[in-house]
Automatic annotation (TrEMBL):
Annotated metabolic or biological route of this protein: Carotenoid biosynthesis; staphyloxanthin biosynthesis; staphyloxanthin from farnesyl diphosphate: step 4/5
Family membership noted in the UniProt record: Belongs to the glycosyltransferase 2 family. CrtQ subfamily.
UniProt cross-references to InterPro entries, sorted A to Z: Glyco_trans_2-like, Nucleotide-diphossugar_trans, Trfase_2_rSAM/seldom_assoc
Highest taxon of the lineage: Bacteria
Protein name: 4,4'-diaponeurosporenoate glycosyltransferase
Pfam hit, one: Glycos_transf_2
Organism classification: Bacteria, Bacillati, Cyanobacteriota, Cyanophyceae, Synechococcales
Main subcellular location: membrane
Cellular localisation: Cell membrane
Residue intervals of the Glycosyltransferase 2-like domain: 7-167
Alphabetized UniProt keyword annotations: Cell membrane, Glycosyltransferase, Membrane, Transferase
Function: Catalyzes the glycosylation of 4,4'-diaponeurosporenoate, i.e. the esterification of glucose at the C1'' position with the carboxyl group of 4,4'-diaponeurosporenic acid, to form glycosyl-4,4'-diaponeurosporenoate. This is a step in the biosynthesis of staphyloxanthin, an orange pigment present in most staphylococci strains.
Length: 247
């Protein structure tokens, strides 16, 4: 049988400092993705130039917002599988094979990776460990029956989430109204369609937010946001703890 086609969708806003490295890595995928789509929210730096140099499909999107941009990319993607990658994230060269093999199991509706935060001079082992565990404890604390019985997990955007297009459309995609936690919200709905898997493979993301806040403060913010979200605090209120970081 022919392997399902894979579309990689990257939401951007002033990501010239990181996008080039991410696209370099995507160019050496083996096998290659069927397409890479950059959905830009109005960058004023060289982000679009970076995307054009690498031959990506570029979509300009208004209004801006990560959920809005990823939904727009999904709507225009041609792939049977949608893979959402942040502009500052490096993926393994066998990404396509891992994604298609995971979703070959009809009982699995969504998957993601272990996110390792790295900077120029250091690897954030403590923060990375917490974020990996958060996938499990957030689900176990707030949806324990689904965690145990149905394999429910809470994935986040820097873990490179992927799912079938038909499942994405069936559950309504990302919630455009959410300024934060749109990834966890999507997991909540995709988790009703099947198991959510965290693969035992690593993707690497920039530690710029941790570098700005410090490891302890960043971990505290991630923990607080996750707990408050699980308790039902609106995402609009949580957004004030999680400002935009660009460099």
């Amino acid at each position: 049988m022919t392997a399902p086609s894979v579309s990689i969708i990257i939401p951007t806003l002033n990501e010239a400092g990181h996008l080039g490295r991410t696209l370099n890595q995507l160019e050496i995928l083996d096998p290659a993705a069927d397409e890479v789509i950059v959905v830009d929210g109005g960058s004023t730096d060289a982000t679009l130039a970076r995307a054009h140099v690498h031959g990506c499909r570029v979509i300009r999107c208004q209004p801006v917002g990560r959920a809005v941009q990823m939904n727009r990319g999904a709507a225009e993607a041609r792939g049977e599988i949608l893979c959402f990658v942040h502009a500052d994230t490096l993926v393994p060269s066998d990404l396509v094979q891992l994604v298609t093999a995971t979703l070959a199991d009809p009982a699995t509706s969504c998957g993601g990776f272990i996110s390792l935060m790295r900077g120029t001079w250091s690897t954030r082992w403590g923060v990375s460990l917490h974020n990996a565990l958060k996938t499990h404890y957030a689900a176990l604390l707030f949806r324990p029956h689904r965690y145990v019985l149905k394999g429910f997990r809470v994935l986040f955007g820097d873990q490179v989430m992927f799912c079938r297009r038909r499942d994405f459309e069936r559950c309504g995609g990302f919630d455009d109204t959410l300024p934060i936690m749109e990834d966890a919200d999507l997991c909540e709905r995709l988790g009703r369609l099947g198991r959510i898997r965290q693969l035992n493979r690593v993707v690497e993301s920039s530690d710029r937010r941790v570098a700005r806040c410090g490891s302890w403060k960043a971990t505290g913010i991630y923990l607080m946001i996750g707990l408050l979200w699980g308790l039902g605090v609106p995402a609009a209120r949580l957004k004030r703890f999680y400002g935009e970081i660009r460099d």
